[in-house]
Hints:
The protein is 45% helix and 17% strand. It is of the alpha/beta class. Helix 1 (16-27) links the parallel strand 1 and strand 2. Helix 1 (16-27) packs across helix 8 (220-232), helix 3 (68-82) packs parallel to helix 4 (100-122) and helix 4 (100-122) runs parallel beside helix 5. The chain is globular and about 50 Å long.
Amino acid sequence: MALNGKTAVVTGAAMGIGKAMTEILLKNGAKVVLLDVNETAGKNLKEALDKEYEQERTLFLNCNVESEEQFKAALQKSTESFGGIDILCNNAGIMNEAMWEKTVSINLMGVIRGTYLALEHMSKLSGGRGGVIVNTASVAGIGPLLSCPVYTATKHGVVGFTRAMAEASTASGYGIRFNAICPSFVQTELFSGPLSRLGQFIHLAPAIHAFADKIGLLNVSEVAEALLELVTDETKNGQALMVTPRGKEFVAFPSHF
Length: 257
């Protein structure tokens, strides 16, 4: 998929990985709708992007992915503003074991909600143009992160949901590819935030930081580069792309039993 003239929607777009995704999509010719619950950060980013790109190539909408109403309205506005949606990056996420229900709500339910709502605009069965949906998972979606069991569960869920949706799309004729991006530790606020977010597993923080020191930290641009591959390569569907400081690797899952 060539990105020139395509429309992308990115959740959690105002900071961190979402901001890097927004920037690389714009750089490669796409128009981007920035969705974020942080209105100040979102408006500031939109203002900065307007100085580099044409103002009409971006749109910021305040949106909480936990809200069906807000998410639905944001995607409707995206379609009205840009004539359709070609790419959705379900990127919004948190890591907070102390608020495990909210972690499930944002990280997993938000991805499912966004996907189902986007189908109404993107699926060829409902008059859409098809396209690609990329869900932000984590290496914790491939293997366990001992200090974050709930975060691990949500990211496993994202990977499983993505793979199942890829097969469902192929079988149903949606015309949409589905992929998951699985970065290791990334230098963002999500990783460097207060230890209290580990809740009852705070005593395991030293083990996690030792592991991070061993494998190193990614920067957000490395994750965005991997996103670009999953979006532009038409052969990629149902893939989980693991991104670490050592490089990129597509995960080989066991064949169907």
